[in-house]
Write a structure and sequence with these properties.
Bound molecules: malonyl-coenzyme A, adenosine monophosphate
CATH superfamily of the domain at 3-16 and 27-179: ANL, N-terminal domain
CATH architecture of the domain at 3-16 and 27-179: 3-Layer(aba) Sandwich
Shape: globular
Helix content: 25-40%
Structural class: alpha/beta
Number of strands: 25
Largest sheet: 9 strands, mixed
Amino acid sequence: MNAYAFFTRGLAARPQAPFLETGNGRVYTYADLDRETARAASFLTGLGLAKGDRVAAQVDKSPQALFLYLGALRAGLAFLPLNTAYQRGELAYFLNDAEPRVVVCRPEMRSTFADLGCASGKAHLFTLDEHGGGSFAEGLAGAADRFETVPMADGDLAVIIYTSGTTGRSKGAMVTHGNIASNGAVLADCWRFTGRDVLLHVLPVFHVHGLFVAIHPVLLAGAKLLFHAKFDAGAAIAALPRATVMMGVPTYYVRLLAEPAFTRELVAHMRLFVSGSAPLALDTFAGFRERTGHTILERYGMSEAGMITSNPYDGERRGGTVGFPLPGISVRVRDGERECAPGEPGGIEIKGPNVFAGYWRMPEKTREEFTADGWFRTGDVGQWSADGYLSIVGRAKDLIISGGYNVYPKEIELVIDAIPGVAESAVVGVPHPDFGEAVTAFVVPTAGGALDEAGIIAQLKSQIANYKVPKRVLLVDELPRNAMGKVQKNVLRERAAQDVP
Ligand code: MLC
Ligand code: AMP
């Protein structure tokens, strides 16, 4: 079934119920949702796009951005959300790899996308600004506001989400209609969503947390979104009295706790706070409980699989763990071929209707990431407690998570190494009070190379997404290596933590 049809199956019963309210108080009802997504779907198909064609969007968060996503789903097109922080080089790769037939971008990026060939017959290029205006909106004005949702099979492609890789090359995770429909239903049920819920939506809508986890259960339940353009602690505090549920990355909870106005009284009526995308520090978990009386529910997921495990709604939500496998999803922890006993760390492998269909045009990479018996290797290291709670205790993949965004050191190292005057580099994550981990680079200059920290940072800012840019660049004479010649990143992490080059 088309996931949009599944999410909105109760829509006819509640056309006038509010679906989304913006930070400025503009309200869209479920009838508006139906009309706006129909318009987007009609317009896109009117351009000649057919089932499976890609629609890429690098746009600011707005109701229209969400209608674009849901309209693409309705039309059976594959949606390709792109982080607004991505720069030209990153975008060139995605466009070349995914070959979208439609690209929707911010007005200020139009010339970049045109330059990348998007306006030259390869793709239709439109703009959409933060207020919902632009050439895409103009196109929609003439489009039909009724649309027969295109039937889809569970295995049909719905969304491509690019995740960077340990080799430095990004992979497009192919997420199907069946993946998002099943996961949305499980979350709506496990987290007890009802039509009375109001979810404070402050996450970006170009990754699975903000696009899937915080939207699909709301649609299924006929609940309402308070839809903010971005996370701002003050604005969140002002909105919380009208919300019942909030979802966020740990940084949001750290920032809320830093505000004296974030009090127990303010959130006494709240039903649920959910955290994920990065580890929730125990002191944040405990501090939140002490301040508010609420126990944050931590869950674990990834682009390739949506949500995998969750602490229980009823029952003990245990800090430092990500709870139990969600219904219908199997999780095992293995050391090689052997299942680990409780307390023993191993690779987390998963199976279930939530697991993606593979990496876009990378059959070999896909094969590598699945075991012979069909389990997906997450690249996360976990361990069970004796009573069945899963903890994430490390990562087999060389990955930094900063403020909920993934940064692959290899990708940054390749860009740094291309800077004239750099002999080699190594990138590590170091603990950071706000972002959880901060990107730090160690750089070895070539003999006579004239490099400094500010210069390197400035160069990187023009080439890669801002959250990937190292917060510190430490110049060193050489990188520590083991007997095999491999860079000892643990040694660098220790040095970086003390900031001693
Ligand atoms: C912004 N900056 C960051 C950053 N975000 N630096 C490191 N890590 C980050 N995450 C830097 C910018 O580069 C800029 O630096 C400065 O901070 C100000 O930028 P900003 O955009 O104004 O920052 P702010 O609004 O404060 O953003 C921080 C944030 C945001 C935490 C609110 O990063 C955020 O919303 N993160 C959520 C990520 C998310 O949705 N993840 C889900 C992935 S899905 P300078 O030097 O230019 O000034 C997933 C699966 C799952 O992981 O399980 O959910
Ligand atoms: P992404 O590729 O952006 O979807 O990020 C997925 C990764 O985020 C996972 O593979 C984990 O490493 C990490 N992650 C998500 N949720 C949690 C969590 N609750 N605790 C620790 N790590 C998490």
